[in-house]
Write a structure and sequence with these properties.
three-stranded antiparallel beta sheet, Glutaredoxin, 5 helices, five-stranded mixed beta sheet
C-alpha cells in the first residue's frame, strides 16, 4: 500500500511525518544507532554495495514486531552476507540487543532512530500522534535506489513478507 492511502493504528487514522518514499527514488540518507563494543552509527553509505531490506517496526517488545523480525531473520538467513537486513525502531539499542540475543536474531541488524528521529522523518514513517515508527518495509538495490516499498495499512498487522523477499532476491 502507498502511504497516501489511509494508515491506521488499531483502526484509528494516524498522521505520518515526512515525505512518502517512492519506488525508483534514491533512498533518503539516515543515521541510526546500535550498540556493539560501544555506540555505533549506521548510515545509508554503510549499506550500499549490497541489496538491503529495511524492516521498520514500532517496538520489538510487541508481538507483531517480534514476529516480523523473527520471520525476516529466518527467511533471509539463507542469503547470508550477500544482503543487508536491518530492523529499525525507536527502541533503545540496549533493548534491541537484549531482544535479538533472547530470540536468536543473527541475520538482522537492529538499529535505533531514538536520538533524533531522522529516519522516521526522512522515510515518512514517524507516527506524529504516538512518536513511534509505523510498520513499513523498504528494499534497496546495491546503489541505494528504492526498489520496493510497503507502508502496512494497519500498524498492528504483519507486512507482505513474500513480496519484500522477492524484491530483495530480484537484486542479487
Amino acid at each position: 500500500m502507498s502511504r497516501s492511502d489511509a494508515v491506521t493504528f488499531k483502526g484509528n487514522s494516524i498522521t505520518l511525518a515526512g515525505q512518502e518514499v517512492q519506488v525508483g527514488q534514491a533512498a533518503p540518507d539516515f543515521r541510526l544507532h546500535y550498540f556493539k563494543d560501544g555506540m555505533q552509527t549506521l548510515t545509508l553509505a554503510d549499506v550500499k554495495g549490497k541489496p538491503t531490506l529495511i524492516s521498520v517496526v514500532p517496538s520489538l517488545d510487541t508481538p507483531v514486531c517480534a514476529t516480523q523480525t523473527k520471520t525476516f531473520n529466518e527467511t533471509l538467513g539463507a542469503l547470508g552476507d550477500s544482503i543487508n537486513a536491518v530492523t529499525v525502531s525507536l527502541d533503545l539499542p540496549f533493548a534491541m540487543n537484549r531482544f535479538c540475543g533472547a530470540e536468536g536474531i543473527t541475520n538482522m541488524q537492529s538499529a535505533s532512530d531514538y536520538q533524533d528521529r531522522n529516519f522516521g522523518n526522512g522515510w515518512g514513517t514517524l507516527i506524529e500522534e504516538l512518536k513511534i515508527l509505523t510498520r513499513a518495509i523498504f528494499v534497496l538495490d546495491a546503489d541505494g535506489k528504492v526498489m520496493h516499498v510497503e507502508y502496512v495499512g494497519e500498524v498492528t498487522e504483519e507486512p507482505n513478507y513474500s513480496a519484500a523477499v522477492m524484491a530483495l532476491k530480484a537484486h542479487l
